[in-house]
Design the sequence.
């Protein structure tokens, strides 16, 4: 599992701190190892009633960038840095 400090970008509002994001895919350790971040180029996409998003990891999994959309809101830029 890897946990990231995240930010969202809302058009005119610039980058704003968001809640931490933890990535854990229990039955696919090759995608997200239990003791390391996802590798560079790994893309994770999710969709649920709580929102959806798609992010791609780079810098050895230390960072990600992508988009997210939360209920009742439009899509936003979404980025994160591995907690360390």
Sequence:
């Amino acid at each position: 599992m890897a946990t990231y400090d995240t930010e969202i970008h809302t058009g005119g509002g610039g980058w704003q701190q968001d809640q931490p994001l933890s990535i854990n895919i229990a039955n696919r350790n090759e995608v997200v190892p239990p003791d390391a971040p996802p590798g560079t180029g790994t893309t994770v996409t999710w969709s649920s009633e709580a929102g959806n998003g798609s992010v791609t990891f780079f810098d050895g999994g230390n960072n990600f960038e992508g988009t997210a959309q939360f209920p009742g809101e439009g899509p936003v830029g979404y980025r994160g840095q591995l907690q360390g």
Observations:
- The mean pLDDT is 89.
